[in-house]
Write a sequence for this structure.
């Protein structure tokens, strides 16, 4: 997704404990994890602009992350059938040398249509959304599972809110476009 913005980048995996703190709500959790992921990498690259991100879903008050397996993906989609699910996607842009920090969390409201067992199985087999919070890819066949999707930033559901990211990068000195 960063290629869309035509900025040079490298990717690094942070080693961050993603457990929620006691009493931490989902929106605060994703914001904290995005910040901690960015800070973990920024420690190794203090002069660089570092982007941390995180995404989780909330279905009827239950936190939903990446399924990791086909069985879990099928269970998540059964849980989402006919439900409204809120996806929280957070970014943190950090530069240690300049003390720059930009944080945003974008909420995407997704209404799943009533899903039949066989179509869930066909979908999971076809798209393999095992590394996607909520077990669907809106940029792919997963869009067929939905009745409605609303957000201030339509790219947030894919995992990186490019409108918010563009704002933060401009504030950090990038020329976009």
């Amino acid at each position: 997704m960063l290629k869309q913005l035509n900025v040079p980048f490298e990717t690094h995996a942070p080693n961050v404990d993603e457990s929620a703190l006691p009493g931490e709500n989902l929106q605060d959790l994703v914001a904290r994890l995005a910040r901690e992921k960015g800070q973990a990498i920024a420690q190794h690259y203090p002069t660089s602009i570092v982007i941390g991100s995180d995404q989780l879903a909330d279905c009827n008050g239950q936190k939903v992350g990446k399924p990791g397996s086909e069985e879990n993906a099928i269970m998540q989609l059964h849980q989402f059938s006919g439900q409204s699910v809120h996806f929280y996607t957070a970014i943190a842009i950090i530069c240690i040398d300049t003390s720059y920090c930009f944080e945003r969390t974008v909420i995407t409201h997704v209404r799943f249509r009533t899903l039949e067992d066989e179509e869930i199985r066909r979908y999971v087999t076809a798209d393999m959304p095992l590394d996607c919070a909520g077990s669907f890819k809106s940029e792919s066949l997963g869009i067929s599972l939905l009745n409605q999707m609303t957000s201030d930033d339509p790219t947030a559901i894919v995992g990186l809110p490019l409108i918010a990211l563009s704002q933060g990068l401009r504030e950090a000195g990038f020329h976009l476009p």
Summary: The mean pLDDT is 97. The first strand starts at residue 50 and ends at 59.
